[in-house]
Design a protein that fits this description.
Layout lengths: L2 H10 L29 E3 L7 H13 L8 E5 L18 E8 L2 E7 L3 H15 L9 E4 L5 E5 L29 H12 L4 E3 L12 H14 L5 E5 L4 H4 L11 H17 L5 E4 L16 H12 L5 E5 L14 H6 L10 E6 L23 E6 L15 H9 L11 H5 L10 E5 L15 H12 L5 H12 L4 H11 L2 H9 L30 H5 L5 E2 L16 H7 L10 H4 L2 E2 L10 H25 L6 H33 L14 H5 L11
Parallel strand pairs: 1-2, 2-4, 6-7, 6-13, 7-8, 8-9, 9-10, 10-11, 11-12, 12-13
Antiparallel strand pairs: 3-4, 3-5, 14-15
Helix pairs in contact: 1-2, 2-3, 7-8, 10-13, 12-13, 13-14, 14-19, 15-19, 19-20
């Protein structure tokens, strides 16, 4: 029996009896599919022999059909399997078309795609519609992903820990692989395929060379075998110094012929074990990692050497632009641009430079990274963080769909209005065919996968926006809520109303008005705007807030670091003036007096305090809204979310009070009318520590 068909049949054999609502089913609960299972739908499809993805598509359709759709007929077709309307010719390899019509009292539904994987994606989208309450008798849509490589980056270590992992240990059981292929690997692949994710980097960017040894290549090959029918390729983070550590060479210089030969041989070895291996992700010359700069070579020279090794096999290099040096006297936000902009046009065509959404480090809010729009001759891919290192980790309810969308919709103006970051990433702005987007995964061994029910929405939103960056975060939230809880409009409306303002509330109680990196040194969890004792200046929150008796904020205009010059001239001209700068980013670009007048007429100080107050009030509102949903929720997920919101409310108050206490110690200003004094003095807040916060390296 073909592997894919066996997997499909195993899915159909899963019990549909009542099960605990612990979140493990994610958005694929199919709660109404248990009704009337004897009435299987009529599905017309080609023979699944040696077509595992097609077998999975059929099994998923049978598994997930709600009772209201089981009397219909379904036709799954590719160009080789029957009639093919000309209007579908533009579908890409992953695209699909859905159409339906009423015929003799029954709904006839066609799912068409050029490939079996496209059919699988089409089935998942049909089921998404079915379990979100859509009218299944009036379908007429065509959908193809705008970005080719849609990848999860796992910061998983070989010892089972996860850097910045807040949902338990790694799901990869390296010790038992390749022999034991845990069923969770199939569940993982299925969940990713359901939202169109097609790649997984298995190991931490702070890589160990062991990942490239024969035993670990065999382990990765076992995972690749599980993932393949679901359309997911595996990638590995490559340690730059591996030729020294594994090959016995005395150098890792990319221009040394022996080094290049070692990497070619290693690539050949990997592809013998994993014929569809995706390629390497590389973190080099950042945070102490080795790289080509150790040999006075450029990032392009390093990336291109690896690209040559992978090219015969169709592999790619994803080279991270997250770099900052030990000697950083000016502005950390400028470093990636300074290092990479001069290299535009020097990278091989199978290299993607992977750029974070902002220039610092996954902050609650950052302006878009200035490299987007600045390297038109280079394949640039986006890197988001799904795991919430700086946004309350797994405990705070902070839906990231608006953050992702905000970055993707930012206009670089590099080729005039409409030159959005999304158009850079999808290749349409500069004519690139190799395109990619990565999300640092929030997945762990917790039963709910991500540490909380609502963190699942961030994984879901990343996949949906990777497929189509123009999707509305609100529409995505509604889809997720309908599939995760209930399609009942009152439930969907209420859950969406909680989700949509949640990230903004966190920005308000943590880093309002453009402040950034104000987290404590203990796991980036609690507040620490006073911290100034760390060895490197850019590790200290005071480096970013620049607060003193006169004012607050980082001057990135011409009178300061002049980081604004890295943006298009029209953007730089706007950012040069505080009154023209979006107040959400005000203190990111300007150091201003506490008495500076905001657009609403209030002083900067009064507005800052009111933002903190608004953040706390936002969490209180979320608590009340969630409590009102209790009658419509299962007890398990309701209670876990209720407790987490209680923690978030306490943390929001801590952030608000600790931050205000520190600012008042500098400016000695009274609080605006109606704002309460912090509960404790500054010394009490400074004494707090979080030494065992999860997710530390």
């Amino acid at each position: 029996m073909p592997l894919g068909l066996a997997a499909a049949l195993s899915l159909l054999s899963l019990p549909f009896a009542a099960r605990a609502e612990d979140g493990h089913q994610l958005w694929l609960r199919y709660p109404s599919a248990a009704v009337g299972r004897a009435g299987s739908a009529a599905i017309s499809a080609p023979d699944t022999h040696n077509r595992p993805s097609l077998a999975l598509a059929i099994a998923e359709l049978q598994r997930g059909l709600p009772a209201r759709a089981r009397q219909g007929r379904f036709h799954l077709t590719t160009p080789a399997d029957g009639s093919w309307p000309a209007r579908y010719d533009g579908l890409g390899t992953d695209g699909f078309a859905l159409s339906s019509r009423k015929l003799a009292g029954r709904t006839e539904t066609r799912i068409a795609a050029k490939t079996d994987l496209g059919l699988l994606y089409g089935v998942f989208h049909y089921l998404r519609l079915a379990h979100s309450g859509a009218d299944l008798g009036r379908l007429d849509l065509v959908s193809s992903p705008r970005i080719a490589l849609r990848v999860l980056d796992h910061w998983d270590n070989l010892d089972g820990t996860v850097e910045r992992g807040y949902a338990g240990a790694s799901i990869w059981d390296w010790w038992r692989l390749p022999d034991w292929r845990d069923p969770i690997y199939t569940e993982y692949a299925r969940a990713n395929a359901s939202v169109g994710i097609n790649g997984a980097v298995l190991n931490n960017v702070n890589a160990k060379a062991d990942s490239l040894t024969a035993p670990y290549i065999a382990k990765a090959a076992a995972l690749a075998d599980v993932f393949r029918p679901w359309g997911i390729k595996v990638y590995l983070s490559a340690r730059w110094s591996a030729p020294i550590e594994l090959g016995g060479l005395k150098t890792a210089d990319p221009l040394d012929p022996a080094v290049a030969a070692w990497w070619r041989a290693k690539a050949d070895e990997i592809y013998r074990a994993i014929p569809d291996f995706g390629g390497f992700l590389v973190k080099a010359n950042s945070e102490g990692q080795p790289g080509p700069a150790d040999y006075h070579r450029t990032h392009a020279q390093g990336a291109n050497m690896l690209a040559v090794a992978l090219r015969p096999h169709g592999g790619v290099v994803m080279w991270r632009a997250f770099v900052y040096a030990h000697d950083n006297p000016e502005d950390r936000a400028k470093q990636a641009y300074n290092d990479f902009k001069p290299l535009d046009g020097q990278f091989a065509d199978n290299v993607l430079v992977q750029v974070k959404n902002g220039a610092i480090d996954f902050q609650p809010r950052e302006p878009f990274h200035p490299l987007f729009g600045a390297m038109p001759r280079t394949n640039l891919m986006m890197e988001f963080q799904i795991t919430k290192e700086y946004l309350g980790q797994s405990t705070h309810l902070t839906y990231l769909g608006p953050l992702f969308s905000e970055a993707l919709h930012a206009d670089t103006l590099s080729k005039g209005a409409g030159s959005t970051v999304a158009r850079v990433v999808d290749g349409s702005l500069d004519g690139h065919r190799l395109t990619g987007i990565a999300g640092v995964a929030n997945i762990g061994a917790n039963r709910d996968w991500s540490g909380s029910i609502f963190n699942q929405a961030d994984w879901y939103a990343f996949g949906r926006l990777a497929w189509d960056p123009d999707l509305s975060p609100k529409a995505i939230a509604r889809e997720w809520a309908a599939q995760t809880f209930s399609p009942a409009p009152k439930v969907v409306d209420a859950v969406t109303a909680i989700m949509m303002p949640s990230r903004e509330a966190a920005v308000d109680y943590m880093t309002p008005l453009g402040l950034a990196h104000q987290m404590s040194v203990y796991g980036h969890y609690g507040p620490g705007p006073w911290v100034n004792t760390l060895a490197r200046p850019e590790w200290n929150p005071v480096y970013y807030n620049r607060a003193d008796a006169q004012g607050i904020g980082f001057d990135r205009t011409a009178s300061g670091s002049n980081a604004i010059a890295q943006y298009a001239p029209a953007i730089a001209a706007r950012l040069a003036r505080p009154e023209a700068t979006d107040e959400k980013d005000l203190l990111w670009f300007h150091h201003l007096p506490w008495t500076y007048r905001m657009r609403d007429g209030a002083t900067l100080w009064d507005d800052l305090v009111r933002h903190y107050d608004r953040g706390v009030a936002g969490v209180e509102s979320m608590q009340a809204q969630w409590q009102a949903l209790k009658p419509a929720m299962d007890a398990e997920r309701f209670e876990k979310t209720r407790v987490f919101l209680t923690i978030q409310r306490r943390d929001a108050q801590l952030w608000r009070d600790a931050s205000i206490a520190y600012w008042q110690s500098l400016n000695h200003l009274p609080l605006p009318a109606g704002s309460a004094q912090p509960a404790h003095d500054l010394g009490w807040y400074k004494a707090l520590s979080f030494p065992y916060a999860p997710g530390n390296p």
